[in-house]
Amino acid sequence: MANVGTLDRVVRAIAGVVLLAIPFVSAAPEGGGMAFGIYGWVMIAAGVVMLATAALRFCPLYMLFGLRTCPLSK
Prior knowledge:
Elements: H1 6-25, H2 38-56, H3 60-65
Helix pairs in contact: 1-2
């Protein structure tokens, strides 16, 4: 049961990639790894969730609140 529309999927995918990249791109070269500590892990988790909901076209929060951004099937 899809409840995420095309535009919503594109925005989620872009946001997911950005959230995944930020901790690694902003890390200091001498420090290695990633930046922001626990906030970096939160960004990575949010990025994974955004990419998963974009790929699966299903958002559990949308279902909980009765939202739908894709057209109804005929």
